[in-house]
Amino acid sequence: MRLLHRERAARFATAREAIDAIDAVTPSSDCPSCGERVPEHHKYCGLCGARLETTSTVQALISSSTSSTSTTTTTVAEQSWNSTPRTADRLCEEGFQFSRRRDWDRAILQFREALKADPHHFLTHWNLGFALNRLGRYSEAEEVLTAGLSFDLPDHRSSLFYERSLARSNQKKYDQSLADVNESLTLQPRSTKALYARARIHLYRGDIERARQDASLALEWVPDHAGALRLLRDLD
What we know:
mainly alpha
């Protein structure tokens, strides 16, 4: 709708802004093997090469609850899920399912409830930062992700650095963003999304040669990487 807005000032100022906005809402899912978040149209994970699967018990339950065919019969699985205590783990999982459906506002509510239940819930900080980034609430995302990184816990640390890099890049904090994405790549050297993000940050900083190198390497890892192809095409 912003692209189609009748007032020129309300539309994107540049094609790059429009492309970044489209990239931000590209449907993605988590790799079942390594946890890498990759575009849903990809058949294989760019990090570990695992075949992507999108089904889960919780996802099936939520999908069934929103289908057009209603039923008064409660399955055993639904009863089990409904009786599960609303712990930080469960609230985070509920928020994650909302985020898979792009219901960002409800996802954020669940994630904030999860943090009330357990302020140190590492995975929730990551998911909340991800959701806030997708809504363009970059300063909030940076704050949440920074809090998550303050805990001395290894799980998902690379993803936290990556998400904070996006939050900072969108606030034009390019030096800090570059430092974050480098930390992410140190922890996960084969992360295609982090490598591509670094290529874009190099581009924003005016380092064309490094942007080209990172985009070319991303294409070696994922030959159909649309973002890297577009970036190299723009540089030629």
